[in-house]
Amino acid sequence: MNSLEIKKATVKDLNELQIIGRQTFSETFAAVNSEENMIKYLEESFADEKLTVELNNPNSHFYLAVLENKVIGYLKLNTGNAQTEKQDQNALEIERIYVAKEFHGKKVAQALYTQALQTAEQLETSYIWLGVWEKNFRAVSFYTKNGFVQFDTHIFRLGNDEQTDLLMKKVL
Known about the structure:
The protein is of the alpha+beta class. 35% of the residues lie in helices and 34% in strands. It has helices spanning 14-29, 35-45, 48-56, 108-122, 137-145; strands at 5-8, 60-67, 70-79, 91-99, 127-133, 149-158, 161-171.
């Protein structure tokens, strides 16, 4: 993984972001959700207009994990009013860290998380928080290993299905 690069995404990266976003979300959740709910979520969350607005929002930050000119994962961070749930203005939300399944266990998520820490430091935030599906044991373990603790729960809607996310945070 010596040639892994983490690069800030811009609107020019929209197509690559859509591809990796749909791929990784499907790999992670398709087996445990209905096809109808998956299609609805993927169409809405990765629509051109929605991603363009998010990429142009100064309070949202996207990063791509690139290996040998191929995007293999991505990170989405939010601050201020871009946070998906109202938290402290001085907080950084990790909305998404996703890595292509074939690269699981190869430290790509850790490299993306390191980018999140660097961004939090640059923005001088007091803590990082996130929501993670309670049944995504791999991700819960990853965040726990990195010092996050649960502070609440909330409902995440995937299509017509309401699922419980654990809200976790790490004070910096």
